[in-house]
Specification:
This protein is an alpha+beta fold. It has 3 domains: 37-51 and 293-366, conserved putative lor/sdh protein from methanococcus maripaludis s2 fold (Beta Barrel); 54-62 and 208-285, Efflux pump adaptor protein, beta barrel domain (Elongation Factor Tu (Ef-tu), domain 3, Beta Barrel); 71-77 and 87-176, Orthogonal Bundle (Helix Hairpins), CATH 1.10.287. 31% of the residues lie in helices and 36% in strands. The protein is built from 5 helices and 23 strands. The strands form 5 sheets. It has a 6-stranded antiparallel β-sheet, with no helix packed on it. Strands 3-12-15-14-13-16 form a 6-stranded antiparallel β-barrel. Helix 2 packs antiparallel against helix 3 (139-173).
């Protein structure tokens, strides 16, 4: 009887441990399945445009000017608003000129007084000249009268110069457009105190637009005057070819960036507006030689790049279906892609996106 009870006990325990083992296996299997991250992978492709330089610029007027006044005073009237088209010589704004008008009155009175003194001095000079010829006046008397006459002439000239200065100041009180264009900024309102040199309005010449971009110093040697640049202005949904018209030879005030100007064809100027952003692709003349190079760089989507402190990397696919973080060195941006200079070879698989947070060694499954 005891032997049969022992066998029954052993059977029950065996069944119990078997059930626990199965449950553990199921739990482990569930945990393993939960740890697997679904990912999308792609193969790196060769960059066939390694010689192309891509820049981001902004449309601007080739001729723009900040309009200011040369006198101090309150702005009494602004005759234009932002967006208005103006012609050369058109009145833009006026500055209070009461004090200048008062000074002009003083100068006009001084001029009349000087002209009257000159009239008297000239009559005296003419009379003494006639008397001297008749030997009725001495040479000393004639010389003295002549000095008074010359002094009166100088007084008139000085008064006229003062009058011209005041008239010039009055012209500064009524500021006109230096050229035809469009008002793009209004920097002061009526009643504001204007100081000499303080911009009141900004005017941009119409029909002469260009693109201003900045090229890094390690690429500026590949930019040449007269070369073509492929331009895309997304806001206007337009693409065209421009020509490099200017390269700033100094980057002292631009943080190591060289300003590059690209012209906009006249048939395109009416379709874009100043301030719009533009993407430029400048083709290097060495592209054919670089395209035949067997050590060509590769392109990957910018969204696949991982940034850790000062390092950049991409997740690649390991032999055991695991995510492996590999550090890479990046080059130029190519639209939505980025150039990989080292760390990833052509044709290697890398992870584009994942359904969960990746880490080095994470179990992955391709979609």
């Amino acid at each position: 009887m005891r032997y049969k009870n022992n066998l029954a006990l052993i059977a029950v325990m065996t069944t119990f441990f078997f059930a626990i083992s199965c449950a553990s296996n199921e739990t482990a299997k569930t945990e393993d399945n939960a740890a697997i991250i679904n990912v999308t992978v792609a193969k790196s492709t060769a960059n066939m445009n390694t010689a192309n330089l891509e820049l981001t610029g902004q449309v601007e007027s080739a001729h723009a000017s900040n309009i200011a006044t040369r006198i101090m005073g309150y702005v009494t009237k602004i005759y234009v608003k932002v967006g208005d088209r103006v012609n050369a010589g058109q009145l833009l704004f006026s500055i209070n000129s009461t004090d200048i008008l008062a000074k002009k009155g003083q100068v006009d009175a001084s001029l009349r007084q000087a002209e009257a003194a000159l009239h008297v001095a000239q009559k005296d000079f003419d009379r003494y000249t006639a008397l001297f010829k008749q030997a009725s006046a001495s040479a000393k008397e004639l010389e003295q009268v002549n000095l008074q006459y010359q002094s009166a002439k100088s007084g008139v000239e000085a008064a006229k110069s003062m009058q011209a200065e005041v008239i010039a100041q009055l012209t500064y009180a009524n500021v006109v457009a230096p050229f035809s264009g469009v008002i793009t900024q209004k920097l002061a309102d009526e009643g504001s105190l204007a100081n000499p040199g303080m911009p009141i309005l900004t005017i941009e010449q119409t029909g002469t637009l260009q693109i201003s971009a900045m090229a890094p110093e390690n690429n500026i040697s590949n930019v040449k005057l007269g070369e073509n640049a492929s331009v895309t202005v997304s806001a206007a949904n337009i693409s065209f070819t421009g020509k490099i018209t200017q390269i700033n030879p100094s980057s002292q005030l631009t943080g190591g960036q060289y300003i590059v100007k690209v012209s906009i064809p006249s048939n395109v100027s009416s379709k874009v507006l100043a301030g719009m952003y533009a993407n430029l692709i400048i083709q290097n003349s060495k592209s054919t030689m670089l395209n035949t190079n067997s050590s060509m760089n590769v392109l990957v989507p910018a969204s696949a790049i991982i940034y850790r402190d000062q390092l950049t990397g991409v997740y690649t696919v390991g032999s055991q279906n695991t995510a492996l973080l590999r550090w890479v060195r990046l080059g130029n941006n190519m639209g939505n892609n980025v150039e990989v200079l080292s760390g990833l070879a052509e044709g290697e698989e890398y992870i584009v996106s994942a359904d969960g947070k990746l880490f080095n060694g994470a179990k992955i499954k391709t979609k």
